[in-house]
Model the fold of this input.
Amino acid sequence: MPLRDHFRPPLADRRRWDAFLGQWPAMIVIGLNRSLPERYVAGPHIHLGSTIATDPPGQDTYEVLIYNAEAGERLVAAVEIVSPANKDRPEHRRAFIAKCTSLLHEGVCVAIVDLVTTRTSNLYRELMEFLGQPDCAFPDDAPSLYAVALRWSNRADQWILETWVNPLTLGRPLPTLPLWLAEDFAVPLELEPSYEETCRILRIPSV
Done:
């Protein structure tokens, strides 16, 4: 089924985008927990940043966190769903990039999914620039819609930042990303089924 534009008319006039972003992590969790090995567990986390102009920059958070329950509830992977507020001003973008950087440095696999059509910033490209990593995925104009998985991997005593990048297109299905839970073990993050189930539950039409 097609990827919808949840942030602009006509759909934005009929369904609230924040309801969609709030529900989608729960549907991703349901799909993951059906297939994750017993030692892993996924859970949703949603937090809305501050709305008062004088407050420090707040972070809207729509995410799924995956823990290794047999290793002291150690966080091993995170799925970060971008909101308009994550992209709307430089300090918010810097806060999002700092969060992803911290997770990656802690050995967490990070997936970023950006469906926001009303902001053109590409947080993945800004993250790669912050990390000082060359990026061949988007050599010219970086698309504003994309899904990517990243992790640091140790190869022959050398740390390498591995990325799996998928540009997204309105009207096309969403991709499947590798979600690395250990150095040599990944599970598929199937975005399309959870996306469609979210749209079905919230009665979001395809056009």
User: Anything to note?
Assistant: Helices lie at 17-35, 84-87, 90-105, 123-131, 191-201. Confidence is low (pLDDT under 50) at residues 52-56. The two ends are 10 Å apart (CA to CA). The beta strands are 40-47, 61-68, 74-81, 109-114, 146-155, 158-167, 176-182, 185-190.
